[in-house]
Write a structure and sequence with these properties.
about 90 residues, transmembrane helix, 2 helices, membrane
Amino acid sequence: MGTRSKKERSFHKELLQQLITLSTSGFGLVAALAWNEAIQSFVKEYIQRFYPGQAGVISKFLYAILITGFAVLITYQLSRLASRWGVKK
């Protein structure tokens, strides 16, 4: 009952890794959508105050810049963490 073959253990390990990857990706998507909504609201509320006539174009560019900067920062930090832990890409 407690003896598993190497093949079974390897399968279970791979399955667990895939489940972790899928769940992490799912939670990442939910977090990205939440940040998307928060940043859009922030840009709309504060940019329209200062540039009421041109808020559409300016807020889209600011939003794109903020999202790009955030994505680069997170990717950079995760890459550093992975290299510190010796994780292969």
